[in-house]
Amino acid sequence: MSNLAIDEAGTSLNPAKREQILLGAQAVFLARGYEGASMSLIAREAGVSKGTLYVYFDNKEALFAAFMESACRLQSGRAFEVLNRPEPVDRVLSAFGHEFLRFLLGDHVQSVRRLVIGESKKFPELGRAYYDAGPRVATNRLKEFLKRRVETGELDIDDLSLAATQFLNLCQADLVLMRNVNVIETATPQRIAHVIERAVWLFLKGYGAHR
Questions:
Q1: So what CATH class is 63-207?
Q2: pTM of the model
Q3: Which of 25, 52, 62, 164 lies in disulfide reach of 143, CB 3.0 to 4.6 Å?
Q4: Could you give the CA distance from residue 171 to residue 174 in angstroms, rounded to a whole number?
């Protein structure tokens, strides 16, 4: 069976070629910013013709949105996989929190965030693309987990979206902000462990079924 998808015009779309284009886009966007990037530069970096580039993406905005989705999905996938574990809720939240915080502190995520923050005032659609591909997805995935654990009686939550957002913010403490503005280059495993331990404790104090 072929791995090729078909676009609306009936053209075969190769997943490997699409990934090749996204890698080229990543290099150009991070090096030159959104405004400084062009479809010609991205095509050259990706090693494809400009015509091929437009077969896969209608314009630079669509390509940037796809780059955001791919970057967030690939980098955060391990954290989301943790949410499928059948372990007690405190252990799953702890494991998820560790993975999520390490993800946010990583060099790649920091580069993407700085790109978006630097250009989103002039190009608001970039902020929306980042939010939809990253924070919104993270909130929804965690919300699904919390809903399952409410159904098993482990949690008592009346506003799942708010609770998911609160836990994600508890996991960050001040570490992500300090990383964003280059106050720190990273955080020690001990500091990460302490932050997540207290985040889980506080969250369950508020939302645990037997609090």
A1: mainly alpha
A2: 0.79
A3: 164
A4: 9
Chain-centroid distance, C-alpha 161:
17
Question: CB-based burial of residue 110 (10 Å sphere; 0-12 exposed, 13-18 middle, 19+ buried)?
Answer: middle
Place domain 1-58 in its CATH homologous superfamily.
Homeodomain-like (1.10.10.60)
The answer to whether residues 138 and 206 touch, using CB atoms and an 8 Å cutoff, is no
Structure tokens at 31: 């090096």
Q: Are 200 and 90 in contact (CB under 8 A)?
A: yes
173 torsion bin: left (phi>0), alpha (psi -120 to 50), beta (else): left
Q: How does 49-69 read in b/e, with b if 16+ C-beta sit within 10 Å?
A: eeeebebbbeebeebbbbbbb
For residue 5, the 8-state DSSP code is: E
Residue 71 has pLDDT above 90, yes or no: no
